[in-house]
Design brief:
alpha/beta; seven-stranded mixed β-sheet; single chain
Length: about 210
């Protein structure tokens, strides 16, 4: 499988000629739709993860693609093919086996409503928690680890990395950080990774899983 990371929380996974797009939001303008997408996974309804215009552009090129997410997201989509899922659900779409975890977004503040959020495991290899630090309760080869956000403390991200102990981890959810902020997050996450024999790397080009 080929993993390609885009700005903020968006990434794609491709196997043979099929692709899944995850969280094409408003903070990911560098993502441009291709014509081999079989599914779009949206972890939650916040605009930095779910941009209706981005989704429409994907479906325009891939009319048979299915949009997958919590009912809170799916209820906002009226004209495209959709599949509502919940924590604990497993789903097979083309060449991809998907499993969903969690259920709620991390708390930002007591005065901010907590929305539904789902983490996803793709082909039992790559785990992405969305905007949460939900543990999947099983081994993880590759971890997309949140590196910044109004709900995240870097120490909590380090603990999350240490608890999961993936083979490889890369940062996500970091468009809210300056260039210096990204360097600082990488420094702390690299420290945690090195202590546990984890390879941690910021993805500037596609990699094979």
């Amino acid at each position: 499988m080929k993993l390609t990371k885009y700005d903020h929380a968006c990434f794609t996974v491709q196997k043979d000629n099929q692709m899944i797009v995850v969280d094409p939001g408003s903070f990911s303008p560098d993502y441009l739709p291709s014509n081999n997408v079989v599914a779009v996974i949206i972890t939650h309804e916040h605009s930095d993860h779910f941009d209706p215009e981005q989704v429409a552009a994907i479906i325009d090129k891939n009319p048979e693609a299915v949009i997958i997410g919590h009912e809170a997201v799916i209820s906002k989509i009226e004209v495209f093919k959709t599949q509502a899922v919940a924590a604990g659900d497993k789903l097979k779409i083309g060449l991809f086996d998907l499993e969903f975890f969690g259920g709620t977004h991390a708390v930002i503040h007591r005065g901010v409503a907590v929305v539904p959020n789902l983490g996803v495991m793709i082909n039992e290899l790559l785990y992405y928690p969305g905007d949460s630090l939900t543990l999947p309760g099983r081994p993880v080869d590759t971890l997309a680890i949140p590196a910044g956000g109004p709900w995240l403390k870097i120490g909590d991200a380090m603990d999350f990395l240490e608890l999961i102990k993936p083979r490889f981890a890369f940062p996500t959810h970091d468009a809210v950080l300056s260039a210096i902020g990204k360097e600082l997050a990488d420094e702390w996450l690299t420290m945690a990774a090195t202590q546990h024999g984890i390879e941690y790397k910021r993805l500037d080009s596609p990699i094979s899983l």
